[in-house]
Amino acid sequence: MSSNSEAIWRHVEAKQEEAIALSDRVWGMPELAYAETRSAAEHTAYLKAEGFRVTENLAEIPTAMMGEAGEEGPVIAILGEFDALPGLSNEAGVTEHRPIPGDGNGHGCGHNLLGAASLLAATAVKDWLAANGLKGRVRYYGCPAEEGGAAKGFMARAGLFDDVDIAISWHPSSFAGVNEPLSLANTRIDFTFHGRASHAAASPHLGRSALDAVELMSVGVNYLREHIPQESRIHYAYLDAGGVAPNVVQAKAKVRYLIRAADVASLNKLVERVRKIGDGAALMTETRVETTVISAVSNLLGNDPLERLMQDNLDRLGPPPFDAEDRKRAAEFQATLSEEDIASAFRKVGLPRTDAPLTDRIVPLDSKRAPMVGSTDVGDVSWVVPTVQARGATHAIGTPLHSWQATAQGKLPHAHKGLVHVAKVMAGTAVDLIQRPDVIAAAKADHKERSGGTYVSPLPADAKPAIGMSLAV
Q1: What is the pTM for the complete model shown?
Q2: Longest CA span, the chain
Q3: What is the rounded CA–CA span in Å between residue 117 and residue 112?
Q4: DSSP reduced 3-state for 371
């Protein structure tokens, strides 16, 4: 047991109101991947006001920043995010789908909470180091574009985590616990088909339809789905269907494919198969296809010593201090969910189904979970440096991420309490590491064994951050 647990928790509590206010401000200015100008400015201003040494425009990304405090000693990185999602706008606190007039963006994945809690944890560690006169450095990395832009992958490729000893992060959830280090590697690739316009009635034989090529590619990929590993996934979205005039043969069309696999090696094999289908669609339609890699991320690597240390902090702290009013409000949101939503949340963490609208327990590290696997660019950080993540209980049990219900709960008291709770977990883990060089050494040994001591970015060498990607939404 750490003798500094209560001390670091008090440092978190001392700055919690500022962090909650930051979270609420960012909730109110939801911005998409690489377009988080105002949100990033809020985080940068917070870092400067707290006396961090700030570096901006990391990896040539205008909305990425890093703040460092402390001197010498181990370097502990705490990762934050602040990007929103399209189509998930909703009024705060209402239990119905009621979008706010405007661009339709909303914090349906809770990244307003994510960035604020990580910044709160980093600030608490900074203050704790100063109060105790200890050597050690804490860094807050403000990481944009997790939702599709893979900014951490570009940051990792640029070497921004190479001198970090340990990285810590978290994500909003229904439950509090150590995040299971399981995710899919993925890539997003734009396939742009170029054909020839023509009058669709008078001279259809002179046209070469780019839209036909996109649709034939979709057919080919749909047949491919039967013949890929069961954990793999392929999704797509039309970015440009060629126009709105059916009497014109479409000369240009664009589709974005999101391809996922268990690891980078499996991903690369699957990507080649999808590319061949795109080439075949172009051949069949006598069009030309261009491809652009928008992003790519690695699968997560776990780390046993770090996960045990974080679990110890969770167990000492206990669940978030939700009260009767919090549970009442959460129950109102649960009433908007399906039984399957709620049951699925319990299965995901391996806990028995209860009627509790908010969690009242810490998920055990050895719980028998039912993996429901997505992707995250934290995966690339985990290949460079030993990494551990928490799950923070910030919304009613069963609330799906990427939903209007998640957006609507983002400013409620139970979300704020979850924010502070997980900040204590991360800060407590960080100060334990600073005092326990043996755990850092064990974490590095575990990491070397899993990674082989090398990180190969899944991004092509010529790929650049898709700074304008949100303009297509």
Answers
A1: 0.94
A2: 83
A3: 9
A4: coil
